[in-house]
Amino acid sequence: MKKLVLFFLCFIFYYTIYSQSKPAFDVLSYHLNIRINDTTNRIQVVEDIEVIYQQKESYFRLNLADNQDNRGMTVSKVTINGQEVGFQHGDNQLILFTPAFLLGDTNWVQIRYSGIPKNGLIISENKFKSRTFFADNWPNRAQHWMACVDHPSDKAKIQFDIKAPQHYTIIANGKKIYEQVDEQGIKMTSYQSDLLLPTKVMVFGAADFKVDTYTNDHGVEVSSWVYPQNEEAGFYDLRLAGPILDFYIQLFGAYPFEKLANVQSTTMFGGMENASCIFYDENAIDGKRSMEGLIAHEIVHQWFGNCASEKDWSDLWLSEGFATFFTSYYFEKKVGQEANQPRWIKDRNLVLSYVEKSKLPLKDTVTTKLMELLNANSYQKGAWVLHMLRHQLGDSIFMEGVLDYFNTFRFGNANTADFFHIMQTHTNQGLATFQHQWLRVGENPKLKCKSIIAGKSLKINVDQLTNYIFELPLEIMVHYEDGTKELKYVPIHTKSTQIKWTCDKKIKAVVWDPQVVLLAEMN
């Protein structure tokens, strides 16, 4: 019997993973009532899930970590539309048998469970030895403390009702809709978001906080949540979020969420872009505003990643690459294009170094350990793809396409093909080769470049040293002896390229890729 149950669980897991694009059901909302306390790390949860069943099936599968070695969740009762149903819980899968489901109609699933989260909900002490609770879901760690479809493709609404000792201040996605303390000193705080979110950014936090709140010129409530022991430094650093948010609102359009809370936290990431409440590592705050780039990166995610989300993990660059690119874009507009070039050079070096360790392409359908996707491909190479596309299309067409992409997939999901389809509608240039060589090829260009100068004569030799032959818009800057300069274009599409020019002036020197717009190793 145990072998039969194990086979059944494995079959369901295999089927649901590989049929993710056509699920039998759609989760519409999660409503979690969570009890936390000061004496143990055990949480008690009553979770209501609103779901539409789209195909007739005999089961309903959710991700939920089971109890192993006294850590994980233990389910005590499940009902569907008020009717108690049987379930199986193992291998981090909660499978509900579904005779009570109504096909095509809204159904309500209620699950009662409790346990000590092994991951996902970080219950610990901050650096000031105060007890804290912070959800830390990326990529699919929400299942350690909530029953859910733990995949970015199934977005839903969320409501948190957090019961905690009254000294805790609670932050979560969406708007605060209720708060009250009972006679036993237990405070109930409720937050609700009616916007569709992926589980990776559905969070709450509980700690002793000081809070600084204001409304910006666009009517967005912006707040800083910091530990009391570093209140002055925390408020000073996180106030940067206001002007950065204004910059991106002017660039992308209206802010998509109910508020922007910037929260000092104790989790595993330097920053996590949780929808409407960004969590920053507690040590990022130093009172010197050194986290400007981090703040910009996480605010970009509110549009790209949280609102327009990737369909699958292999499209992570649509989140992290966008956030990295538009962080550099922010600094470019602040300091100027030339002054910002060292940032692009640094990121290019990271990409070129990473390819020596991994030959996987940017569109990575091979990696199964999702944490390994947090690499220079997803971040820096994704940003460089956008950087080169911007240079190829021009600023105006590039931004028109990006905004069209965002508005098309607002509160939805997209993949790489979706993005390039949108961009193609804004240009007469063919983008198929660009997309293939930068997204599907597991290496980057290596060029052996040589210039031969003889008075007014210039000879350019470029050899490609990789197996794959790239099509590249290589630029050079020709410097003349009279102090002037001229930008020239060298089209590369074969293994070896030779070009000769006779110029009007004596040539002094040649600079390769002077605007830093080509992702290539050039010797």
Could you describe the 3D structure shown?
This protein is of the alpha+beta class. The chain has four domains: 184 residues, tricorn interacting facor f3 domain (Immunoglobulin-like, Sandwich), CATH 2.60.40; 95 residues, Neutral Protease, domain 2, CATH 1.10.390; 128 residues, Neutral Protease, domain 2; 77 residues, Immunoglobulin-like. 26% of the residues lie in helices and 35% in strands. It is built from ten helices and 29 strands. An eight-stranded mixed beta sheet has the order 5-4-8-2-1-11-14-13, with no helix packed on it. Helix 6 crosses helix 7 and helix 8 packs across helix 9. The protein is elongated.
Low-confidence stretches: 1-22
What is the level-2 CATH architecture name of the largest domain? Sandwich
The biggest beta sheet is recorded as: 8 strands, mixed
Describe the global form: elongated
CATH domain topology of the largest domain: Immunoglobulin-like
| Nearest-integer average pLDDT | 94
Derived from helix and strand composition plus strand pairing, the structural class reads alpha+beta
Query: What is the tally of helical segments?
Result: 10
